[in-house]
Amino acid sequence: MKIFKELINCNIDIDKQINMANISNEKSLLLFDMDSLTISLDKKNTDKLLNMNIPTIKKRNTENFNTDNFSENVFKKYNFIYEKRIKEGKDFINSLFKLHNIFLLRNGYQLIEDSPFNLIVHKKNISESGGFVNMHITCDIDNKIATPTFTDIQLPFICTRYITLVYMHEIMHTQVINEKSSGKTKYLNNEILPIFIEYLYLLERGNSSLISRHNFYRLNDLKDNVQTIKDYKDNNKDIDLNLLEAEQYFISNLVAYKLFYQYYKSSIKEKKEILSLIQAIFDNNSTIEEMLDSRKLDWSKTYIKKRN
Fold this sequence. Notes:
Layout: H1 2-9, H2 12-17, H3 43-50, H4 72-96, E1 102-106, E2 110-114, E3 120-124, E4 132-139, E5 146-156, H5 162-173, H6 186-189, H7 192-205, H8 208-234, H9 241-265, H10 268-282, H11 288-294, H12 299-307
Parallel strand pairs: 1-5, 3-5
Antiparallel strand pairs: 1-2, 4-5
Helix pairs in contact: 4-5, 5-7, 7-9, 8-9
């Protein structure tokens, strides 16, 4: 219960620092008053977000992390712990959802239908919270059928518990490639479920250190996204990939947090219903937009209307 309270309350001090209402205050304007959370980015709310005093965390030297000098025993231990972190992610996802096979591309030409958990993991000198899954679109001989195929997942070299969150995030991306989804709003919603699974893991298995690091990274991302959107608006710049990515993470971060809060407040029965709605997306029986609509959370449509 202590962890649950910490996860919900960890941002309250930040709210106070920027003169925003406590989580129990229904008149709060933006962000972490879950019941009245909106996507408004008027000047007042934008300024509050940009002036957030985000608590610092101890920096970890991830980019220069190197295993070349490890002794054989240390390297074995490192690999054992790394695989354990990944297995924690696999087990947690399997406890909630039934994932479907995906197409894996091997050796640049060999296409195999297999579990997403069999994607090769490559370790890179990237930040602790960084990672991505490599996806390609392959077409049949007439270019009529486009099939998403995956080659590998890239994760940080450094072996911390954060690896579990990053790994689960990337695995979820393999399941939300849905032909039914709307092209107009899907890009804005693309990160919602990968971020949502992070919160579920923190709720069930997180500790104070992991929760603090997660909120540090997510809040900094949110702040950077708001700054990017503001720069484009202030300078009347044309829409490009940088703006679309900032909008995507801005919407996805807020909606994932709101969806998580709905889940947190729900009865056991309603929790199961939320998970069933997500499973329907994986089963290709629904879309992210339909799921969000049923939860009154499809903010991407509203955002696009306001932007245009």
